[in-house]
Write a structure and sequence with these properties.
The chain has one domain (5-387). Helices cover 48% and strands 15% of the residues. It is built from 17 helices and 14 strands. Strand 4 (87-91) and strand 5 (94-101) form a beta hairpin. Helix 2 (35-44) runs antiparallel to helix 8 and helix 8 (193-207) packs parallel to helix 11 (261-287). It is globular, with a radius of gyration of 22 Å.
């Protein structure tokens, strides 16, 4: 799977943060969200929706674990920033300009978007990729009846707390980081290590003055509406599949030690380094530093505990009792198909736009532009001239 949309959705959409300030009289929005509700819901459908967590937007290739160095803490940029340059795709005299987006971004930056807005004003189409949604088909009413099981499955078995299930040295590290980023939070002490780590990452991101705001898209959308440019959002690529024994999986999971303590320990070790990598990436986008965007976080191993939890769900008694491995295989298959379809849909729409429009502006996650097998590379393979910023 090339892109884990569900994990990105979990980290981005549900991460609390403040809106990105913009230049001039453009509006500012503020989003306050509740990560706990997300992560409990994620566990509830862990045997399906979050199985994609084994493949991350960030590189999962092994790299030396890094300890955070407080003396090297990155200072986020603020004030007016140019943002990234645009990729130029062309054939004959038809051009597509592609803006790569990054989340999270520095909270106090102001994007100087005049060039992008001018390009949109002179274009005939603003193109967005399809969102991928792979989910279980259990129905709304049935899903509501599973809520009590969801909540129970999100907690440690037998009402244990983190101090009861973690080694003393690991728990000591947790207390230091929790105090720093979450303050006095007794609620999280009852959660499984995987979800405690997820809450900590969200809190640390928020406290680092990063934001998951989507105002970059709001800027280009406002420009398109102002100049009456067509906004073309590709239809969502949806894959649903039935799950026969969701309640059984949840019931078994709520009583099972999922063995996520080891990953939790690594997450504590890597937390500060991961936040620093996000800061470097956010600053690189704000300043338009493409080389820094390529390198940001490349040396930080991404030990996401959701992947470890998925492996536990697929193994042992839970797999045999509830048929979880079958659901994992089905999920991965559906996700691969959806990703492939989303890519083909975008490439088809991009080629049609390049054939029809004199000028097109497209918006893509920057990973899709930087990857050697990403969307820009696919267009180059099809004979288009592709120029990086």
């Amino acid at each position: 799977m090339k892109v884990n949309h569900m994990v990105d959705y979990c980290r981005g959409t549900f991460a609390a943060g403040h809106g990105l300030k913009r230049v001039g009289n453009q509006k500012r929005t503020t989003t306050m969200l509740k990560p706990r509700a997300l992560w409990i819901a994620t566990l509830g459908i862990a045997f399906s929706m979050t199985l994609a967590a084994r493949t991350q937007l960030e590189s999962t290739a092994p790299a030396p674990a890094q300890e955070a160095d407080d003396t090297l803490e990155t200072v986020l940029v603020s004030g007016d920033q140019p943002g990234p340059g645009l990729w130029k795709v062309s054939r004959d005299d038809h051009v597509m300009w592609i803006l790569g987006t990054v989340r999270p971004l520095p909270k106090d930056m102001r994007w100087r978007s005049e060039r992008v807005e001018a390009l949109i004003a002179g274009s005939q189409e603003l193109l967005y990729p399809a969102r991928v949604n792979v989910t279980v088909d259990i129905g709304l009413l049935r899903g509501l009846t599973l809520l009590p099981a969801l909540i129970k499955a999100g907690k440690n078995p037998n009402d244990a707390k983190l101090r009861d299930v973690l080694p003393a040295d690991t728990y000591a590290k947790w207390l230091v980081l929790k105090k720093k980023h979450m303050g006095d939070n007794d609620r999280v002490e009852k959660m499984r290590p995987t979800f405690a780590a997820a809450d900590l990452l969200v809190a640390a991101t928020r406290k680092s003055e990063l934001t998951y705001s989507t105002d970059v898209r709001a800027v280009v959308n406002d420009a398109a509406r102002k100049h009456k440019v067509r906004i073309h959002r590709l239809p969502e690529v949806t894959r649903k599949f039935p799950v026969k024994n969701a309640r059984g999986v949840l019931k078994t999971a709520s009583k099972t030690d999922l063995g996520d303590g080891e990953c939790f320990n690594r997450s504590m070790d890597l937390l500060e380094a991961r936040i620093e990598a996000m800061k470097l990436r956010a600053n690189a986008w704000a300043k338009g530093d493409l080389e820094a965007l390529r390198n940001a976080g490349s040396g930080v191993r991404n030990d996401d505990c959701m992947a470890a939890l998925m492996n536990s769900l697929a193994a042992g008694t839970l797999a045999t009792d509830a048929g979880t491995q079958r659901e994992i295989d089905n999920m991965n298959r559906q996700a691969e198909l959806a990703e492939t379809q989303a890519e083909q849909d975008w490439l088809g729409a991009a080629q049609a736009a390049l054939a029809t429009n004199q000028t097109t502006v497209a918006v893509l996650p920057i990973e899709n532009l930087l990857r050697p097998d990403g969307y820009a590379a696919r267009l180059r393979e099809r004979g288009y001239a592709v120029e990086e910023p």
